Amino acid sequence: MIAKQLLAEEVAWGPSGLVPAVVQDPTDGRVLMVAYVDAEALAATLATGEVHFHSRSRDRLWRKGETSGNVLRLLDIAVDCDADALLIQADPTGPTCHRNTRSCFDHAGAEATASQTAAPNPAGSRAAAQGFEWLEMLWATIDARAAAADPTASYTARLLAGGVDAPARKVAEEATEVLMAAKDDATAGPDSRPATRDALTGEVADLLYHTLVLLRERGLAPAAVIARLRERHKA
User: What does the DSSP assignment read for the chain?
Assistant: First the structure.
């Protein structure tokens, strides 16, 4: 638990009453953004559980996401060894940057979109970023649905309430549909290729989602799967 009063007393506010704050997603350590906090923003963050900053350009309190809706939900906050900077760990509800990227340190267009249909890069070239980080957000949403008091509150909650059979059946169903969509795309002519590529994209998305739901129902974290892939990887 965050010691609110102790934290406020520990901060060594700068001459302008501000300190820099680094916002990090603790799921993978990604730095999402850097902004400035004053005593008012700190108090609002601790009181509401949503990260607030001081906007230097507008000289006012700024709740992250007040316009876009992509708020940062506070998870933890700490001061550094000199007490003149903050580390804020937060759960992002959407892209953090105004350019619609996960992090303000991502280059514009870094997040892969469903419309991308480029062929794989030639051997030896550097692969483009694919935006896999967003799966962390999807997993967090599935995890939250699992804790819902009402098992009929959402499609995810209903699947989880059905035990292992419900999501497992969907995984088998979606895997078959991925196979059919892939074969359709493989035989499609140039005119029909956009439609078959879109269908394949949708079916793979459904398979990934239902696979994550199955993992959640079994209490198996995706991190274990990632670890197994790393073990199998040959450089």
Answer: ---HHHHHHH----TTS-EEEEEEETTTTEEEEEEEE-HHHHHHHHHHSB-EEEETTTTEEEETTTTTS--EEEEEEEE-TTSS-EEEEEEESS-SSTTS-SSTTSPTT-S--TT--PPPPPTTSPPPP--TTHHHHHHHHHHHHHT-SSTTSSHHHHHHHTTTHHHHHHHHHHHHHHHHHHHHHHH--TTTHHHHHHHHHHHHHHHHHHHHHHHHHTT--HHHHHHHHHHH---
The whole-number pLDDT of residue 129 equals 57
Q: What is the pLDDT of residues 29-38, one digit of tens each?
A: 889 999 999 9
**CATH entry, 4-92, from 2.30.110.20, 3.10.20.810, 3.30.70.20, 3.40.50.720:** 3.10.20.810
Fold of 134-232: Helix Hairpins (1.10.287)
- Ranges in the chain, pLDDT < 50: 1, 111-119, 122-126
Report field, pTM of the whole predicted structure over 0.85: no
Residue-level pLDDT at 113: 41
